[in-house]
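call fold(seq) -> tokens
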Amino acid sequence: MTSADELPAAAPAQMPEPRQPWLTRAELGYAARLVAALVVVGVIAGMIWRLWATTPTRGLVYYNSAIVPDETEGFISSDGRFAVITAVIGLAAGLLAWRAARYRGPVTAAALALGGLAGAALTNLAGNLIGGGSTAGKLGTQLPRLPLKVHAWDLLFVEAALALLVYLLGTLFASADDLGNPAVPDPALSST
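ret:
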């Protein structure tokens, strides 16, 4: 039999390190403010789009639910101007979100995607609501102005795609694994 003195000493129990939360309230608050800002900017951009898209598109009521647009560049120019406006907003949003180093991470990227899509959709909606125009008329009548709207629906993704592209390029070229976020603890310091 062995005595208690001969037993090996037990290693001191190590307390597990507390986990860092994946998502903080500060990040959620920043993400909510970012989405809200892109929504407000989207409404303002819709007004700007309406002022800039000056070429009216006329149409002929061909059938009860079919309108034949005239051969002007109205559809293409309005879509192109929508693309330019939302592209500038997306580039600026991605750059400004990257500059907020404290909130860098996947939550901000998700907020850029959501806010960019919502902002572009509201740009289209605001432009349509204040753009005037009508799609109602008798058969064979010429409509003087069709409503302003995006015809190439893929353009609704330009703002979010460019915002994410700028943000992800910043991530790609970040020299530190923590993306320069001062709120992220250094794992080398916490293990000692």
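The CA atoms of residues 13 and 81 lie 66 Å apart.
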